[in-house]
Amino acid sequence: MKKLMLATLLFASTAMFAATTVTGVLTDSMCTRKHMMSGKTNAECVRECVKEGAKFVVLANGKSVELKGHEDKLNALAGKTIKVTGEMKGAVLVVSSVEAAN
Asked: How far from each other are the two terminal CA atoms of the chain, in whole angstroms?
């Protein structure tokens, strides 16, 4: 019985920490869908907003997910469609890998 309970707990804890992959547009938490800096590209606006304290977010299926980690790579991909993988910690996706989506 103890072995069964241990196996169940191990399986449940592994499932809780399973990798999450999201594909969507890399934007920022301030502007999200509509960038507000006139004369700037979406990528430039994202970078400026993040520099001012906004967070990187990926916008997918009308919802945004905050991203944490790999900021240099995220900065390079600002405004583009990305595929990002990581572990969800609350409402934040802790990034383990990110790349431009096809």
From this structure: 49
Q: What is the pLDDT of residues 44-91, one digit of tens each?
A: 999 999 999 999 999 999 899 999 999 999 999 999 999 999 999 999
27-46: average pLDDT: 84
Which one, of 16, 17, 31, lies nearest residue 78 by Cα?
Answer: 31
Query: CA distances (Å), 62 to each of 2, 23, 28, 32, 91, in order?
Result: 45, 12, 14, 10, 15
Average pLDDT for the chain = 84
The domain ranges of the chain are 19-100
How far, in Å, CA of 56 to CA of 17, rounded? 22
Could you tell me the fold of the domain covering 19-100? OB fold (Dihydrolipoamide Acetyltransferase, E2P) (2.40.50)
